[in-house]
């Protein structure tokens, strides 16, 4: 299965404009590297989508385990890429500066693999309990499972406030579940299991044993873990200086970043950006809707 080709990748152009509007120097290194890798692999895919998507049949039964690494880094089209990477940009800026670059990189790698494993487990379970072998063939591709896991983390560290989900205010602690339902209500072809897998991995980190397991594997004692709050000394230029004094970041690293993150996104909240991107994506693919459903690409099948 090949990626649909078009002369102009409007979603990619829009994504690049968002990145340059934020400013490359204002994007933490791991977040920037993740964006760059996904864009590079969209333009230069290692394998066709049918050979990189993740399914029980291909990965587990045929032992093609490399799909665990390939599937989150490949996207079905430019709007799929835009939709996911705009979300990654916002989440990465918040989480990487809170947790430090090294630990955030560790999280990205762990979540990428573990989300795929949980996805396979969910699809296998559905196939067994419902007696429907089609679940084994559902093939998912895209970064959205990881993004749902990161959203759980972000809501865990910033528990207060409301999120705007399709125009409805939702408490942050329920935002992931509301988005899970909303996305599949708007676009039924998306991979429900892929997104649910991301939420479950995020909960395993925030409320389960995953964080302690990761610390133990990294040789870190929980008693030595500390994530001091960021400090943003304000200066007359309207910018604030970020000091990365986290144990997993680069000691003494600092950079000037705009104090008002809304300026990056024209004042839109993350959910409003994603809603706009989804509408644009659905409009852009309207004429190809029937063909998209036949492709059955799980997570494209669009991601977050």
How would you describe this structure to a colleague?
This protein has 304 residues and is mainly α. The protein has a domain at 10-218: Rhomboid-like (Rhomboid-like fold, Up-down Bundle). Strand 1 and strand 2 form a beta hairpin. It contains 14 helices and four strands. The two termini are 22 Å apart. 57% of the residues lie in helices and 7% in strands. The chain has helices spanning 10-22, 29-43, 49-52, 56-61, 67-70, 78-99, 101-130, 134-137, 144-157, 172-186, 192-206, 210-217, 270-284, 289-295; strands spanning 162-165, 168-171, 239-244, 253-258. It has a two-stranded antiparallel sheet with strand order 1-2. It is found in: Endoplasmic reticulum membrane; Mitochondrion membrane. Keywords: Apoptosis, Differentiation, Endoplasmic reticulum, Hydrolase, Membrane, Mitochondrion, Protease, Serine protease, Spermatogenesis, Transmembrane, Transmembrane helix. It is an enzyme of class 3 (hydrolase).
């Amino acid at each position: 299965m090949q990626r649909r080709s078009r002369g102009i990748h409007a979603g990619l152009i829009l994504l690049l404009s968002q990145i340059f509007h934020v400013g490359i120097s204002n994007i933490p290194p791991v977040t920037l590297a993740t964006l760059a890798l996904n864009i590079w692999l969209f333009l230069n895919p290692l394998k066709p989508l049918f050979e990189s998507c993740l399914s029980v049949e291909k990965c587990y039964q045929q032992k093609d385990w490399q799909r665990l690494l390939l599937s989150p880094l490949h996207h079905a089209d430019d709007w799929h890429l835009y939709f996911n990477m705009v979300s990654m940009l916002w989440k990465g800026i918040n989480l990487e500066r809170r947790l430090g670059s090294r630990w955030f990189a560790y999280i990205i790698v762990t979540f990428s693999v573990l989300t795929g494993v949980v996805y396979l487990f969910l699809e296998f379970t559905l196939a067994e309990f419902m007696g429907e072998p089609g679940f084994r063939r559902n093939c998912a591709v895209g970064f959205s499972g990881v993004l749902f896991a990161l959203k759980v983390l972000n809501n865990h560290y910033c528990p207060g406030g409301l999120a705007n989900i399709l125009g409805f205010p939702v408490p942050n602690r329920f935002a992931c579940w509301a988005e899970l339902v909303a996305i599949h209500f708007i676009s039924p072809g998306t991979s429900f299991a892929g997104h649910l897998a991301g939420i479950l991995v995020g909960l395993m980190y925030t409320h389960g044993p995953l964080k302690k397991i990761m610390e133990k594997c990294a040789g870190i004692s929980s008693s030595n873990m500390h994530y001091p709050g960021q400090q943003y000394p304000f200066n007359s230029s309207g910018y604030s200086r970020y000091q990365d004094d986290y144990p997993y970041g680069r000691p003494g690293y600092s950079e000037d970043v705009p104090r008002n993150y809304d300026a990056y996104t024209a004042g839109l909240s993350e959910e409003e950006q994603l809603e706009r991107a989804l509408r644009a994506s659905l409009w852009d693919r309207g004429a190809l809707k029937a063909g998209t459903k036949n492709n059955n690409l799980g997570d494209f099948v669009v991601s977050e």
